[in-house]
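Hi there,

I know you've been waiting on this one. I reran it after we fixed the sequence typo, so this is the corrected version. Both the input and the resulting structure follow.
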Amino acid sequence: MASAFKGILFDFDGTLADTMEGHFLAWKSVLGEHGISIKPDDYYPLEGIDLHKVARQFADGPTWTAEAIDRLVQRKKEYYVSRQTVTFYPGVELLISELDDRNVPMAIVTAGHLDQLESSVPEAFLKHFLAVMTGDQFSRGKPDPEPYRKGALALGLPPTECIAVENAPMGIQSAKRANSYCIAICSTVDRDVLNEADEVIDQFEDLRDSAIFGQILA
């Protein structure tokens, strides 16, 4: 019997690549330049939301105009790109290549901006995806359904025919509100905050053990 699912929508940071510490250190550094101190527990629950909203979470008050927030976000991106070496989780490159060889439509759906992604991720890896949907392409970011709706549209599929692979609560909410099936990975936060997903797995390599995901590989 043919699978009900035709395409896959992957979050990037913390899902495909072990980059969350790098993003945290970038925010910590640029905010520290302004006397603002943050801890990992302050940042990690915000993963997936728009970069400007992250900035606003920590930099607030009358001196933080829209232009000042724009400069802070740009400074963070520059810091990240200049220092971050992207490391993919075990099994990512093999599975993505296999899915591409099988002509499975795939998209990246991330809050990161396109310039940041293209500056830090190998071009050969990004070419496996039919679409790369980034935060600067959305009017409303995660947890709004817009990112995953646009990701599915870019694949020419309804969201109901797509599996979303996520690692953060905001992303799960976005995928579920778009009516996609969502598999969450416990790569950056505890399992108990991922319970809105349809499935929760421990690591990326466990995707192959998912009966639903396996329909695409069958």
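Quick highlight: The beta strands are 7-10, 106-109, 131-133, 162-166, 181-185, 199-201.

Best,
R. S.
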